[in-house]
Amino acid sequence: MITYLAPLIVFLAFLLDGQLTTLLINLAPGSISISSHILLMVGIFLSFHLPLAYSLILFSIIGMIYDLYYLGIIGIAITLMPLSLYLIYYFYQNMKYSMVTNQIILIVIIFIFDFFAFLLARLFFLTNLSMFIFVFYDLMPTLLFNFLFLLFLQPLLRRVFLITNKT
Length: 167
Description:
Blueprint: H1 2-27, H2 38-46, H3 52-71, H4 76-94, H5 99-123, H6 131-160
């Protein structure tokens, strides 16, 4: 059943991500930028239910939509979304499911996604932001917010995806 609902769940997470990120940027003081990564959180929980090939195709499509909607060029998210999902699958080959491993994997995946997105944006001259400003005004607040947000959302996502401690 989750296989058929996965595209809808991922698309809703994509829409919520954009709205929550806009809200957080408007509420954040000064030049601090906080990005929500609900899409990657959903990717963590979908990794227990979907085959890798299906997930990679799904996140490649959502990466293309992300690129077209937010960046205007195809390349950054269409590359990093499937890569992030592949890393989630790779990490869970050697780790057991728990709240702590979800938190660690989310922090690592968000770091990789945002850092490489920044590097690719610098490479393609989409930004001229310095590394220092990016790390302290964008990456650190994003990591902290998403860490706390997953603590809050994890019980809800576990119920939605019917994950117990026995899996």
